[in-house]
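Progress report, Aim 2. The chain analyzed during this reporting quarter is listed below.
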Amino acid sequence: MASLISHAAPVQQLTADTNGIVRIEGEAEGETAAADQGKLRQRYLLLQKEKFNWHCSKSGCNYMWNEEAVPQVWGNLSIQGVKVESERFKFYSDWLPLDSETVNPDQLSFIHEGRTSRPLLVESPKETAYGYHALSQGQRITVIGRAVNGHLEPIHLPGEEEDQRMILIGGSVEEMLSSEKETQTGILIAAGFVMLLLVPVIVGWIRKLFRKLQTLQS
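Predicted structure tokens for the chain:
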């Protein structure tokens, strides 16, 4: 992902012969009309609602992001005159704050901020909750997608299923790369921890193998 982001070709606009992975920077434009009716007080250019399910493990219970659920997306976004459309977006910006300015007062009692490190609107206690990503008019953003004959299309991301194509949206390239590096560091730490747990098992396998070889030789 970091390589994909850093190698995206910066362009100011798309022409009929523009193709490949591109990066467009500028202000978000469009009609401020996107909202989750009855829940959010404000409207946005683009709004993506992500699903979370209640999950319990040895470390405790909390709402965990459901990566298999298709998010709900509202709004029409453009940047530098280029339409940005996708069934799903990968956001690198913060989650939409859920407070008295963004959420109807009668919904405030259903806001959850736990180990998920993001504000969630609880629909069913200990069952389902939702988090939001949003873009407002004039917000400075960076968009990465695939240019095909002058149009911007979602791209298949490394590690994702083939049918899960997305357009990347962040505040800047630096923000995107920083996020990816943090993710990579977390994966490496987790992998190292797993390897430490497996060392005794591997040593046991080697000892058994040596014993079998010694038995065969004798």
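The longest strand covers residues 46-57. The two ends are 54 Å apart (CA to CA). These observations will guide the mutagenesis work planned for the next reporting period.
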